[in-house]
């Protein structure tokens, strides 16, 4: 099915596969019913918040995915930032996007870095703010997502995508290589990259499959045996690394 929004996609999967696993990690399993319930609860919290732009700085996790969906569904512009970047670079990106709220893993930073990242937040929202236009998405009521290409903080490399366009990409991919609700897809590629976001997270969720969240780079060679996925999306460099280590 070709979905027009994240909300439609999640509601459909929860109706069809309520008790099937949506997210699998070392911390446990989140079913589709549980995923949608938590997304809706957090989206309601976001909707009560007048701030319009959420910057996410944390490793991939069930909570990261829930927060991302909730932010977009609540109509917020959602900025996906690479948590491995230096605090100074992250602060520049926060200022550039005029983010005014953070989803942050504080353990990643020391006290001075944390203060700098928080200080970069936009304190007020004006009529010409980048965030005030978050509802311009072609997905009714949903905000857009902002990605930055890998390995750079150049402002010209930012890419704005809507939930509708991302769902369209998933549908196109499904026509070429289908997965089903019985599949387990291992997510090793960072979700802040468009390929990782679409192919290792959004694609399986759109089909009711399970997303197995990798445990980080040090476990790359162990995670395929640990999770036993049926599909493992990979870029050439990752595929070569895994094959060489096998």
How many individual β-strands? Answer: 9
Shape type: globular
CATH topology, anyone?
Answer: Rossmann fold
Low-confidence segments, given as residue ranges, are: none
Question: Biggest sheet: strands side by side, in what order?
Answer: 5-3-4-6-7
Approximate strand percentage: 15-25%
Q: Could you give a short account of the major beta sheet?
A: 5 strands, mixed
Question: Can you tell me about this structure?
Answer:
It is built from nine helices and nine strands. It has 246 residues and is an alpha/beta fold. It has one domain (6-245): Rossmann fold. The chain has a five-stranded mixed β-sheet with strand order 5-3-4-6-7, with helices on both faces. Strand 3, helix 3 and strand 4 (77-80) form a beta-alpha-beta unit. The mean pLDDT is 91.
Outline of this structure?
The chain has a single domain (6-245), classed as ANL, N-terminal domain (Rossmann fold, 3-Layer(aba) Sandwich). Helix content is 41%, strand content 15%. It has helices at 6-16, 32-47, 62-73, 87-97, 111-119, 163-176, 194-206, 223-227, 236-245; strands at residues 21-25, 28-31, 53-57, 77-80, 101-104, 145-148, 158-161, 184-187, 210-213.
């Amino acid at each position: 099915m070709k979905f027009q929004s994240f909300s439609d996609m999640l509601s459909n999967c929860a109706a069809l596969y309520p008790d099937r696993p949506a997210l699998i990690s070392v911390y446990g399993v989140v079913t589709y019913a549980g995923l949608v319930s938590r997304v809706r609860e957090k989206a309601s919290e976001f909707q009560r918040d007048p701030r319009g732009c959420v910057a996410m700085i944390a490793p991939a996790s069930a909570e990261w995915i829930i927060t991302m969906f909730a932010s977009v569904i609540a109509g917020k512009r959602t900025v996906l930032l690479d948590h491995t970047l230096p605090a100074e670079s992250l602060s520049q990106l926060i200022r550039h996007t005029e983010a005014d709220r953070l989803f942050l893993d504080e353990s990643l930073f020391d006290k001075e870095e944390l203060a700098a990242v928080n200080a970069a937040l936009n304190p007020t929202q004006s009529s010409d703010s980048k965030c005030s236009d978050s509802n311009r998405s072609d997905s009714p009521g949903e905000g857009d997502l902002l990605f930055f290409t890998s390995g750079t903080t150049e402002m010209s490399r930012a890419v704005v995508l809507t939930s509708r366009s991302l769902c369209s990409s998933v549908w196109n991919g499904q026509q070429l290589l289908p997965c089903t609700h019985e599949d387990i897809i291992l997510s090793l590629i960072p979700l802040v990259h468009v390929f990782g976001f679409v192919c290792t997270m959004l694609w399986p969720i759109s089909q009711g499959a399970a997303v197995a969240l990798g445990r980080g780079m040090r476990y790359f060679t162990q995670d395929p045996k640990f999770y036993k996925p049926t599909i493992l999306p990979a870029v050439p460099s990752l595929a070569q690394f895994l094959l060489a280590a096998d």
